Amino acid sequence: MTITWDPSPDAHPATGSNWAPVFPDALASASEQFGLGRPPGLPAGLDSPSARDVRPWGLRGLVRPEPISRHRSGLRYDPGRQLLVGADGRPVLEDRDDGPSADSVSDYDGDEGKSEDWKYDFAPDHPLMP
Amino acid sequence: MTVLILAPELDLSADRMVEELRHREVPVFRADTAWFPAHLKIDARLDGGHWAGRLSVGCRSVELQEIRAVWFRTPSTFSFPDTLSPTERQHAFLEAKFGVGGALGSLDVRWVNHPNRAAAAYKPIQLATAARCGMDVPATVITNVPQAVREFADRCGAGRMITKMLGANHIEEEGVRRIAFTRVVPEADILDLRGVDATAHQVQECVRKAHEARVIMIGDRVFAFSIHAGNKESFVDFRADYGALTYRTTDVPPTVAAAVRQFMRRMGLLYGALDFVVTPTGRWVFLECNPGGQYGWLESKTGVPLTAALADLLAGAAN
Fold this sequence. Notes:
The complex is a heterodimer of chains A (130) and B (319). Chain A is largely without helices or strands. Chain A has strands at 76-78, 83-85. Helix content of chain A is 0%, strand content 5%. In chain A, a hairpin with a 4-residue loop joins strand 1 and strand 2 (83-85). Chain A is extended, with a radius of gyration of 20 Å. In chain B, the strands form five sheets. A five-stranded antiparallel beta sheet of chain B has the order 16-15-14-17-18. In chain B, strand 14 (211-218) and strand 15 form a beta hairpin. In chain B, 47% of the residues are buried. Chains A and B meet through loops of A and helix 1, strand 2, helix 2, strand 10 and strand 11 of B.
């Protein structure tokens, strides 16, 4: 396979001016051209594991993460300041001398975002059908 | 000249960026696509070869033509009311995706990173591209043939083959979330390969490791951190136990840095978090690149101003 996008160093936007995204990614479905993440608060799925004969081999060795949460209650997004604030209205960042930290995550989504266990497109064009 | 941040509400790195840009007096408009359609409104019209109009949330709004850079932090998927039927919901979702995604995605501005860089999520493409760019990569097999796994395990030697996910590293079953960290394949699982034929699997040689390193690429700037594991679990996959890790800034060998820059250009990425194994002899072996990988905790642990570097990149387009 030949990867054809941005073949020239001159095309790199860090070294040039603006660039025009033209949806060149042949591998991505139409929906994946604008991949979006899992919505907040969605409950975990309820499927049961299949029999060992048919369950994908790579799913052996799964671990259940320890719930880690240092989040205070009463957090809310402040649309005026465009950031997370506590019940007292102060930005959460002001209360953290360590800043965003991957070791202070809740359910391993990461309070910085969701990229370490990122799924490219949570809602594709054609969701898997039963 | 505004920076548009598309990020979930709970994203402290985005919070920090909002503060950084505000400190620099760079206008910021932050939104999560999960607010669409209830709270996030788009009113776009085709004006010549560009989309003009407005994106608004409550009393805040930004003219599309004022946007000069977009920081795409994996915003959440659109949110529709439960009153819609599943069919209506799917229709609404696709219309939103093609409408909002299309209008925003066509903005001729600096994207960090543009979401259409989906190929960057394909690890086999990453590995092939990294190798073409001159990086060392682990011996890797992708297969659904049990015999191929067995033969590769023999070549790697006892206890020297690992397996890792190609896509998302977690699943949800029975109401709980389960994570698949990189793991050394135990002998019992090599003897019992049932399920290999169920789908594609990735197995790799277990590269001899002194420590891991994460390279944060921001534009052409290279920031590197060595990650030192304090226990067995985090030695195999540092994500398995963040509490057992220590960090140091480090230098990337010039040949690796040059290869990484070439990799980023080929993948069309302005930002990336690249993971390496550093061998006891000092060889850097590429593992993968996460186009949306986290950096905030490394900034916190080491004091390296990554947010400022990213703000330079975003604000540079906005100024």
